[in-house]
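quick one before i forget lol
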Amino acid sequence: MSKKLLVFLTGLFLLASLASYVYYRRTVAAVPVDPWALVPDDAVLVAATRDHPTLVRHLKETQVWDNLTTVRYFQGLENTVVLIDSLTGSRNVLMRFLGRKKVLTSVHVTGQGRFDVLLQLPIGSVREYRQVRSLVDALSRDPQFRVRTREYEGALLTEISEVGTGRGITFLNHRNHLVMSPNPGLVEAVVRRLAAPEQPSVAADFQNTDFFRLRDVDATLLINYRRLPQLLGVFFRADVVPGIGSVTSLVLDGQLEMKLAGNKVVFSGFANPETTAGSLHEQLRGQPAQRLRMADVLSLRTALLVHLGIGEARVLRGARPAATTDSLAASINPLLDSLTAGMSKEAALAYLAPASARVSPGRLAVVWCAQPARQAILLGQLRRVVGASPSFERVGSYQIYQMGVPELPARLLGPLFAGFRQPTMAVVGNYVVFGDDAAALRTWLQDVVAGQVWARSPTQVSFLQETQPLARLSVVLDTRNAWNLLLRGLVEERRAGLLRNESLFKRFPQVALQFVPAANEAETGAQYFTQLLLRHPLVGPAVARPQGSIGTGSLLAFKTPLSGSPTLVSVAGATRPGVLVQDAAQVLHYITPENVVAWSDTLAGPVVGRIQRQTVAGRSGYLLATPSQLHFLDEQGRSTPTFPLNLPDSVRASGLSVSPVGAFGAPRLLVTGGGGNLFLYDTKGNAYPNWLPKRLDFNLAAPPLYLVVGGRDVVVVLLENGYVYAFDQQGGVYPGFPISLGARLQSEALAETVGPTLNRTRITVVNQHGERVTFSLAGDVVGRSRVATWSRSSVFRLIPDQRRRSYVVAREEGGQLDLFDPTGRKLLGQKFLTSGQKPVQFFDFGAEQRVYVLTEPGPGKAYVYDRLGRLLGGQPFDSSAPEIGLEYEATTKTYHLYRTIGPELRRTSLELK
């Protein structure tokens, strides 16, 4: 072959390859993979997650994370994560890989008494693809694992198994979309679905719904209610499953959003009605949703309540056969029809908590009637017709009768109320209550007489207030009462698993699943609104509630008045900050961005100075001081090793300055001990030489300024007599210091420029002659200018912004307070009725979003001005603390104002016009 021909063929091959690559990129790869289309049709549950760092944070803040780590499945997952980190030689590899990807996890019943999980992970870049390949290669080299590939219907499957255990995982890479499962059959089912792309996906009914567009959604959950009894059949005995199927036949499938917030997890969304003949939906179609009125007669022993909102009870029973050969039925049917006709609004099945798993739970049927006296007469007539004993048992003012009619509740209310072989009966208020035996009804009535009912329990009332007020079907579970009930209903091999996971199961003792029909259901057959609420009673220090008509936002009402100003702390992945605030009992509380108290820690005294975010020994947390101790609390509010540091008995700390974040070595802690005394410690409690204490001749004008310049510590100290000192870490004075600023000082300093050398570092202060003075750390005054006129009674203060990058100057004289920019231009002025110093804050969110806050402590008012001197909100805000917290959300042009009023922490949103 000639050289020219070889070059020609090579060029042709390269051109064809390039064309194929371009075709792939523009046709195949350009079409995104629909992960829902890969989920096999037999999925019972499909969870979708996206923002995994935020999800994990919410799980930790709601304390669910601690319970999950006790579950064997999650312990295995944790071991897998540790293995991945060790093989890749890095930390948090999986969490970084997940990031903000949309990940689908589906649950499938794969055999008798078995279910498995299918996981889908998208690969978003070449780097991530290399990470996956590197991990597989590392596993193939590890003798503990075996990696092999096989072909299934044209697709290449990779199987990774652990030698000697039989455990493993199979995965498929479909267009950079990983599909994996411990069950190879599920991955094979995905391959079969790929062969028929025209089939509708499991989420076809919800393809236009994207809950992730909404705010604060942690996950979504797709439920196939038609297959749900099949999954529950893996756990529960066969005789329990039909009853579950009767209840779930109200709806076909549904999709819910999940939000984690403090003491609850809320799933809310929509479900399609089940329209097959004989379904619960077909029975109740067109019936009005009802409120749960029977809280007055529901015992606190209730473990499970299945509540139906109905118009007329006859819809539950259906049409009675026209003729019957049963002589008993023929004689009592007219009475039964009359009884059913008098029943309406709501009917429920209630299961009482059994004493042990070996005892059958007491079961009750409760139904509302408009004329209870007439119902009692009809029930008496029914007892006489069947020859039942006229005797009764009295409990308080109520009477229990033996009815003598087997399955009477089912004859009145339909097959959902079957199982009452020898029912007893009592009339309580507007309710007729049937028990499956006298003991259950007696126990229930004793609680009603004693007032041990839902309506008198603050915990239960607050729970019901968070549920939907009107619903067609409500399933309410008390997990603590239901513990023995569940143990009895589980198949034998699942009981040990429930016992192992008791802490997780009882984490949320209050559970409610509700279905609310659409208002125009009769015309359109629209979807049900669905809510699943998991909640534990509020036992913390605060209760959240809306501010009401006078404010937009929310508030937390604490049991103890708040004594400190709110400190805002940034939270990774959250659009709003967290808040630290202390109460009068010296308890420091951390409030999450979702306005929930995540933790509380009792301190030895009030916080002095500012709380500072720092990293100590690789752990992120908060450094703060009380008069007798230095504290470092991690992000869960726990004291870290060596903390708190106990100060000497002679020291009463009045402030804390910390070396800058990121400075060389561990943070250095500079304690102001009152007067002119300074103490310097490391985070292990060691005192630095010549700082035990560093005694100065005059009182400090402000907290010292701690800088690191060119690797050297510099402590800038301003004294009230107008002198400034700069000390090194050994307590020595830097050359050029002290310097005199020509007038007294009553204000802090700002490091406008921190350069590589002392000479190129600039510090600015304002003295009491109204002069702005800038000096270098070489001891040279490099700038001096007058900001405003002064008098003997005027007080000047430099007010830095929240990031300490810019500043304004405040001048107070009598009740007059004026603000100036550094050039001397007056920004605003206000006359106050009260005398005394007024705290001033300056917030700089950009040139167009500058805010000035003037607080008048006497009447407890905070005046919030924008950059043009306009009062935000049109009036001052109530505030009992010297300072407020403020954040600006640029996307919505909204200010979020945090302030304390007595025992309340309030968050108010102010939108800019």
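fyi The mean pLDDT is 83.
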